[in-house]
Amino acid sequence: MVLKEVYSQNLKRKFEIEVPASLIDKGFEEAIRSRMQRNIYPGFRKGRVPFDFVAKQEEGLIDSVIVDQVYRHWCDIKDRENLVIFNDQENIAKIETDGYKKEKANVSFTVECELLPDVPEIDFSKMTVKARTFIVSQNDIDLYKERIKDNLVTWDDVDASSAAEDGDRVVLDLNGTVHGKPFKGGQLMDFQCRIGDGKIISSLNDGLIGMKSGEKKVISVAFPEDYHDREVAGKEASFDTTLKSIKRAKKVADPDAALLTQLHCKTQEELDTEIKKIITSECEIKLNEDLRRQIESNLEKYDFLVPDSLVEQQKHYIKMDTPRIADDKLQDEALRRAKLSLIFAQFATKKEISLDKADVARHLMTVSAAAGLDLEYLANIYRNNKDFANSVTLRLMEGKIITALLGTVQRESTESTVEEILAAQKQEIEADKKQEAEA
């Protein structure tokens, strides 16, 4: 056996390997004898066929025998050398068979792979984080109700003569093509969006302004080079667009009654109880996010090699969320997330944390209810859009891991107020929007 490392960079490796001809001979003999017992050959009784005759009849079998021995040999090498491949990503190539077929020479091949790094094992039970506590007061409830009432609107259909404006909700049929050919994800029926919310590409958003209900229009869209869908990144597309309906926000006439109706309450006492639940939930989400950041900050001191392929994967997901992020920030953030994901994965394995179909179903139902989207529509996207499915899976798994971590670390409690917590949350949201706009 010959094992030669011909390339090593970071965790990437390239090996040149030889399989001894004797192993190929042995594998071929075993395959032939198996066929002698199982197969029927004209002129011979089953199991009584001469070896040389079967070997001649089945000489084409040698190629599959060689491939089988190559893979077995590589598996033996991995076990013996303690090579653990990251994500089972390995490329076996350049299997040279001519030498064996002509003169029974050893069979050589190459393997390119990326090794799993040595991830430090961390005792999270010894990690301490500062955990803020809070009490929801009646004043908090009253202030929160006023904020909600200020934003209560009804969505009314506009008349056929009115054109779509910034802030309107519209329903569209879209048929996107690149060079006249449809592309995956470019055909959408009854697609709902809000003009100006930043969730659709800007040129498509701008093309909707001024359209009227029932109007059809071809909107040209230039996808940026760094667009997350690589099939259309950097390309010009045309969208045959039909605007089916327009709804416009209108302040409610009686905010107090509207708030009771929206939260399914009959009395002010019921409303206060429901508002308290909402405030508590929002504060707990924010505080858990604070704890998560503290945990991540504590983990940044650990330095170890990270697979390049994992960093590239993280870049892809980051650019889906923040398409205009600067390249230097993208590299640093991707590397940070890659390290954290490996540490979290090790913790998940140790704690036997896993994700199942029920977790995904519950998440899609929650998103559907919160965003007012059809559940089947979301489920279809999950089934057919690999990027979306991977993003959902990663976030759900990460959420379960963080929940388990929060139950493991030590906490130092400090008192806080609802106003402080929610004000910090608002500032962070505004800062994120500003950062994305500047990226």
Automatic annotation (TrEMBL):
It is found in: Cytoplasm. Pfam families: FKBP_C (PF00254), Trigger_C (PF05698), Trigger_N (PF05697). It catalyses: [protein]-peptidylproline (omega=180) = [protein]-peptidylproline (omega=0). This is Trigger factor. It comes from the Bacteria. The lineage of its organism: Bacteria, Pseudomonadati, Pseudomonadota, Alphaproteobacteria, Rickettsiales. One of its GO terms (molecular function) is peptidyl-prolyl cis-trans isomerase activity. The keyword Cytoplasm applies. GO terms for biological process: cell division; protein folding; protein transport. It comes from Neorickettsia helminthoeca str. Oregon.
